[in-house]
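RESIDUES AND SHAPES:
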Amino acid sequence: MIMILGIAGFYHLFVHGPANEFSLQTMLPSASSGIGFLAVIVYNLVGLELVACMGKELRNPVRDMPRAILLASLAIAFLYVFGSMGILMAIPTENLNLVSGIVDALGPLLGKAVHSLFWSVSFLCFRLLVTR
C-alpha cells in the first residue's frame, strides 16, 4: 500500500507537478506543531525491547542482530519517506488530515481504482487471517 501511494504520488508529480512547495523553510517543524508529534515518536519505540527476546533463536546473534536491525531500519525509513513524499507530491497539505492522510490521498491519486484496491486488500487480509 505504501509503495502504491509513493508510486502514484511521484507519477502525479511528473504529470501535474508538485502539490506543495518543498523548501527548507516549509520542511522544518515549528515548536508549537512539533510537540504534538512527541506521542507519535514515543509510540514508534514501543516493542523495541522485544528484539532481545529473539537472540536465542538465531544461530549467530552477535553477527545477525545488528545486521537485521540496520536492514529493517533502512527499509522502514525508505518506505516511510517514500510513502509520505508520494502523498505530499499529490495532495496539498491543507487537504490532509493527520488521522486520515492515507485515506484522503488514495481517492485523488487512484480515482475509481480505490474501490478495487480496497476489496483486493480486504480479500488478501481475510485470506491471510484464515490460512496458516
Q: What stands out?
A: The chain is about 65% helix and 0% strand. The longest helix spans residues 61-90.
